[in-house]
């Protein structure tokens, strides 16, 4: 078995469902990495130095030394996760060998998250928490679509009896979903409606790699905050302010 390559990784991230995907992946793999916290509320991700890493101006992003000895930039969380397991997961701790049925099934669920759960729940977050006015159609549209996608996941666990999305091994597909499912309440989704998915979330939360990675670059507080109505309202108001300001800036460009 080939030894994993030595890493020279810097992770540019923030405490978001997308950001913790990468820190959890790195912790599960046991790869050393440096962290640069990106203050997205101050639009650091829009600064020229960051745009040279990710032209889309979003976190997470990652740099590494490639096999040719030169720096490589990586952006889009799914792309970064695939890079990390293809290059470093030689023991298939959180992946399956390329070309196997399981490998393609992992990709199915990874893209399901990237094209479905993440975007739909992100829009649910926006209309439910950040929009300048309450638009019931937008809230209902995206909350209901998020619930539909959660039901797909819940039914998958019910039908397969799997511990994880693909068999009984935690993979990047599970890691990609975790941060979003853990933050269901922020989108106004009650995880108790989906008992099989909730059991999976609890299973994931018990993993040491998840526990370490979800607290990068700072401790995850979403679960505790959702228990405190005043804290929720305060955080939503603060976030709404900089999100709306950022939208106005984007309109000028």
Provide a descriptive summary of the structure in words.
With 253 residues, the protein is of the alpha+beta class. Helices cover 55% and strands 8% of the residues. The protein contains 10 helices and 4 strands; from the N terminus they run E-H-E-H-E-E-H-H-H-H-H-H-H-H. Strands 2-1-3-4 form a 4-stranded mixed sheet, with helices on one face. Helix 1 links the parallel strand 1 and strand 2. Helix 1 crosses helix 6, helix 4 packs antiparallel against helix 5 and helix 4 packs parallel to helix 6. The longest helix is centred in the middle third of the chain and has 30 residues. It is globular. The termini are far apart.
Short recap of the structure:
Helix content is 55%, strand content 8%.
Detail the topology: elements first, then pairings:
Layout: E1 9-13, H1 19-29, E2 33-37, H2 48-51, E3 61-65, E4 71-75, H3 77-88, H4 101-130, H5 136-160, H6 172-182, H7 195-205, H8 208-213, H9 222-225, H10 229-252
Helix pairs in contact: 1-3, 1-6, 4-5, 4-6, 5-7, 6-7
């Amino acid at each position: 078995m080939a030894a994993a390559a030595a890493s020279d990784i810097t992770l540019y991230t923030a405490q978001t469902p997308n950001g913790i995907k990468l820190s959890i992946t790195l912790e599960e793999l046991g790869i050393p990495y440096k962290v640069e916290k990106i203050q997205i509320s101050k639009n650091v991700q829009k600064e020229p130095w960051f745009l040279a890493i990710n032209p889309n101006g979003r976190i997470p992003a990652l740099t590494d030394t490639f096999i040719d000895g030169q720096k490589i930039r990586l952006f889009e969380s799914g792309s970064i996760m695939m890079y990390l397991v293809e290059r470093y997961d030689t023991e298939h701790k959180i992946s399956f060998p390329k070309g196997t049925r399981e490998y393609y099934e992992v990709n199915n669920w990874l893209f399901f998250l990237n094209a479905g759960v993440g975007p739909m729940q992100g829009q649910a977050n926006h209309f439910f928490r950040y929009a300048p006015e309450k638009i019931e159609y937008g809230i209902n549209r995206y909350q209901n679509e998020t619930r539909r996608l959660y039901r797909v996941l819940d039914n998958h666990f019910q039908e397969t009896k799997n511990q994880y999305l693909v068999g009984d091994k935690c993979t990047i597909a599970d890691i990609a979903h975790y941060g979003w499912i853990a933050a269901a309440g922020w989108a106004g989704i009650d995880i108790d409606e989906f008992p099989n998915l909730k059991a999976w979330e609890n299973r994931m939360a018990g993993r040491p790699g998840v526990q370490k990675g979800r607290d990068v670059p700072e401790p995850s507080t979403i679960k505790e905050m959702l228990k405190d109505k005043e804290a929720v309202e305060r955080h939503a108001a603060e976030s709404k302010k900089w999100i709306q300001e950022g939208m106005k800036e984007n309109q000028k460009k």
